[in-house]
Design goal:
Mean pLDDT: 92
CATH architecture of the largest domain: Alpha-Beta Barrel
Structural class: alpha/beta
Strand content: 15-25%
CATH topology of the largest domain: TIM Barrel
Oligomer: single chain
Order of helices and strands: EEEHHHHEEHEHEHEHEHEHHEHEEEEE
CATH class of the largest domain: Alpha Beta
Strand order of the largest sheet: 5-6-7-8-9-10-11
Low-confidence stretches: 1-8, 383-398
Shape: globular
Helix content: 25-40%
Distance between the termini: 48 Å
CATH superfamily of the largest domain: Enolase-like C-terminal domain
Amino acid sequence: MTAGRGPRAVPPAVAEVRYGVIGLPLRLRLRHTTVDTAELTEVFLRLELTDGHIGWAETRGNGAYATHHTAGDIAAALAALPLATDPAWAAPAALADRLAAHCPPAAALLDIAWRDASARARGLPLWATLKPPGAPAPGALPTHAPIGFGTVREAAELATAAARAGFGRVKVRVGGDPALDRARIAAVRAAVDRTAGSGTVALAADANGGWAPDTAIAATRWLADHAVAWLEQPTAAGDLTALAAVRAASPVPVWADESVRDAASVHAVADAGAADGVHLKLEKAGTVAALAAALGAARARGLDVGLGQMDCGRLGCATTAQLAAGLGVTVAELWGCAHLAHDVTEGIGLRDGSVRLPDAPGLGVRVSVDPARLTPVGTPLPAPASVQLSDPARTFAP
């Protein structure tokens, strides 16, 4: 013990950890090359410390096209954890690292819930725990407005609404019929220019790996005609040779998304000359430390960086916003809850196309889920049906 100082405070331990699967209905279907759904199936985790502080986390369970894991996979990984009374919970970060090796979305749940509870115990917002002490509070965090598959008219209407709402970036899902995609991009460009002024709103296009290389190369020419800022994952995730071929021929910067998960995959993309930028996600990396390492690798290799998220509830949006602020990422997708008809989280908002972080410790949001409806880690979910798409009777409503 240092002379003149009292004993160092012992941080609170983990007292209880519970999880469950919650269906959040959408008012507008989520549609792109690899998904078509009217519901976001979300896995929630609640972690309580011995001092009473509680942390929450949320991740997509029906986003296997990006994470390669279903709600059932995530639930099984959490069920396989030791009970919260086990000594292993003295090191939650080590447990999260172990989970990340085989189920990154489950690891993200554990890591974020623990960080949320710990930050609340310290009276700090989560972003501040990732910065040097005394770092200035972030201001508003600009985000994309998403436009999924649909008709040309629907794309124009959504783009007009986004420009009126103050969004400075719009990201359009492409990767299907090139002729329809071209018409939709043209309609979006015309709509945002008419509403906000020529060139005021940036456009990005995301193909989610939906095009063959030749199709993607041809598409980059008309994407350039409409001043698209970047094209994300034009070809299949497992083929860096194809991605590099598109990048070599493209007048539009090419970004990797499904092709990058961690620092090693970022280096692989850079080694192949396959991308100008990368779109990173916590759900793919598994832990905040792994995400930060991937971010550092991208910056070291001279790649542009975006921070993304799966479409999710406000709890997931708060997580990505806190990470963007804490890790210094300025190009980010932070409003995956845009088309939700119902949520179980409140406390974070959107104004003028930007997310405002809550002025509260941890993630700063409130989650209205009865913990008695959740299952303790180390035990299975009550029934297989609880990890399927939920109906209103099974949705945990506030």
